[in-house]
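Take a specimen:
=====
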Amino acid sequence: MLVNRILCDYSPVLQKMLVSLYKFKIIKLVLRNMWGMFVRMNAELLKVGYLVLCFPDI
């Protein structure tokens, strides 16, 4: 019974902690995806720039 009371007393705090943890995870995932897209875009731009510099007559 003590465990139940502790859980009831602290459940709002635990829920807030869980929500903030999930938000943090989601933000981290989004940032990682954005970073991956950014890196890929830069790689494509570098390729295009390299082609333009090396073969300007194309």
